[in-house]
Amino acid sequence: MVHFSTRAILAATRSPEVHQAPSAIPIYQAAAFSAADAEELGDVLTGARPGYAYSRIDNPTTAALGAAVAELEGAEAGLAFATGMAAIHAALVSVVRAGQTIVATQAVYGTTRDLITRILAGLGVAAEFVDPTDLAAVDEALDRSGAPVLYVETVSNPTIIVSDIAALADVAHRHGALLLVDNTFASPFACRPIERGADLVMHSATKYLSGHADVLAGVVVGSRERVDACRPILVDVGGALAPIAAFLVLRGIPTLAIRMQRHSETALDLAAWLRNQDMVERVHYPGLPTDPYHAIAVRQLDVFGGMVAFELSGGQTAGQGFLDAMRIAERTASLGAFRTIITHPPSTTHRQLDAEALKASGIAPGLLRCSIGLEDVEDLREDFELGLAAARQAVAVAT
Ligand SMILES: Cc1ncc(COP(=O)(O)O)c(C=O)c1O
């Protein structure tokens, strides 16, 4: 008979035998998994046989998330990461080397731009930013730079530009480059870039996939070979997702379709309403027939999504006045949650950009970006009415 401490350790670490499938994926909150013998441990660690050894390398709950997103995206394989940025970093580093160039969309998420221009540039990777809707410019940049990768967002942050994935995949492949697509804004419910020729697709699962603003996570999906090339980066850099975080994203996925439909319906209603308001100079929403990306969106997106941006006359003063008046919408920088979120990109998500870069990215000083939530549309409209009145007043006081 062993003594008490030993008994406690053995008693509390004995895995339950479960022969029925649980209705939710269990949280395998374990740093490591024991092997039956030394040979099994060696085999699992070297990948000679399937299994789990250490959760930075692989974990059943995080693996279930990678596989679920791959299935929704129509991809062969998927790998989960601690954040969307860890996923984007791994995807990019798996395809570029020092001395090579990344051709990326101009209107890319600010931190992705930083990753490319600060971190990867410091390691000898060059970058060229292009307008993803100008296929001739993309073609020319790939030709001139010999870049091995073209990086775009299905729907871009924050100006809601819809990139034509099939056309961009064609251009990239003609130059022997891979197409990497950040599909965060669209979600796999609205668009599946792999079906249109993308080679790797990344998500900030922090957003629509989880949908509840209570977790950070990222996913990369693609062919088994391309995803396998990302795994050493996950293992060596250590951006592994916590099992409980994977569980929270998995809990959001079954309601993704119903949430995306509701986000899209409400967003279209508000975008159409905003277009008729006197303070509003421009509305960016691909669901509006007048939007420059409407035709591509109709071809490529199953729903138009929950992201709406609009520009107020009166610039920054009007934008901040609107934001300060919100009673229902949350003032923060994230997106894709059940609650409506409004942000002012020039002073938040894209604050790294100077005036010239902001202009090049199409970000006006009075731009507000909304992630439309699941609230009742009448209440949001009322909140926006308050915002417009406050914006009008802020401009009147300032002039
Ligand atoms: C389009 C897009 N991609 C990637 C990211 C990064 O995701 P995370 O915050 O999960 O690292 C974000 C975050 O806002 C985003 O909006």
Descriptive notes:
- 50% of the residues are buried.
- By secondary structure, the chain is of the alpha/beta class.
- The strands form two sheets. The protein has a seven-stranded mixed beta sheet, with helices on both faces. A five-stranded mixed beta sheet has the order 8-9-12-11-10.
- The N and C termini lie far apart (85 Å).
- The radius of gyration is 23 Å and the shape is globular.
- The chain is built from 15 helices and twelve strands.
- α7 links the parallel β4 and β5.
- The model has no long low-confidence stretch (mean pLDDT 95).
- The chain is 42% helix and 14% strand.
- The chain has two domains: 199 residues, Aspartate Aminotransferase, domain 2 (3-Layer(aba) Sandwich); 143 residues, Aspartate Aminotransferase, domain 1 (Alpha-Beta Complex).
- Pyridoxal-5'-phosphate (PLP) binds next to α4.
* Estimated helix fraction: 40-55%
Task: State the strand order across the main sheet.
Answer: 1-7-6-5-4-2-3
User: What would CATH call the class of the largest domain?
Assistant: Alpha Beta
Q: Describe the global form.
A: globular
Characterize the largest beta sheet: strand count, sense, and whether it forms a barrel.
Answer: 7 strands, mixed
- Rg is 23 Å
Strand segment count: 12
Strand and helix order: HHHEHEHEHEHEHEEHHHEHEHEEHEH
**Mean pLDDT over the residues:** 95
Tally of DSSP helical segments = 15
The unique ligands bound to this protein are: pyridoxal-5'-phosphate
Overall number of structural domains: 2
Determine the CATH superfamily of the largest domain: Type I PLP-dependent aspartate aminotransferase-like (Major domain)
- Structural class call reads alpha/beta
Kindly report how far apart the N and C termini lie.
Answer: 85 Å
CATH architecture of the largest domain: 3-Layer(aba) Sandwich
The name CATH uses for the topology of the largest domain is Aspartate Aminotransferase, domain 2
Q: pLDDT below 50 for ≥5 consecutive residues: which ranges?
A: none
DSSP strand content: 5-15%
